[in-house]
Predict the 3D structure of the following.
Amino acid sequence: HDITATATDAAGNTGPASTGFEVNVDTTTPVDPGTDTPAAPTITDVVDKAHTDVAVKDHGTTNVNEMTFSGKAEAGAQITLKDGDKTVLGTTTADKDGNWTLTPSAALADGAHNVTATATTAAGSSLPSAAFDFTVDTQAPGTPSIEGVVETAHPDQAVADHSTSKTPDVTFSGKAEANSTVVLTDSDGKEVGRGT
């Protein structure tokens, strides 16, 4: 709308119109309470770019560094995806049903990520969505070590390397990357145990 103002005096004389004031009215845009900005969009799903049945979990750790984000927003809104406060992962547009999907053009670096989405319409830009937090870890753990073997029933009885044990029930211990799963295999490749 282009709004102008005119003044009429008591005698009925009307002066010239003011300079126009242009404003867009968008009554279809949901707004955040207490503001005039669009409601924040949502991030509903994050999946492996190559295997869309592999989900990335919020607050989880993944070995996937190329992923597709999707969510909901006002139909036609421009969606901007950010990692942290400054890094823009890309932009896309919500479809007529308010669904949006975005695959960043670059793989994400290993480490912690805090991804948010904002929606921009004629009424302005929304507040950021709730953050989707996750950690990318594409590096395989280092080689674990076996540092001790004892008889399970007699933990004070150590079993020496290259020796013969009188019992098949033994407990192994050693070192590995924190939170990793260690799998023990015999010389035939058969799994004989696992632990963390």
Notes: DSSP finds no helices and 15 strands in the chain. The chain has a mean pLDDT of 84.
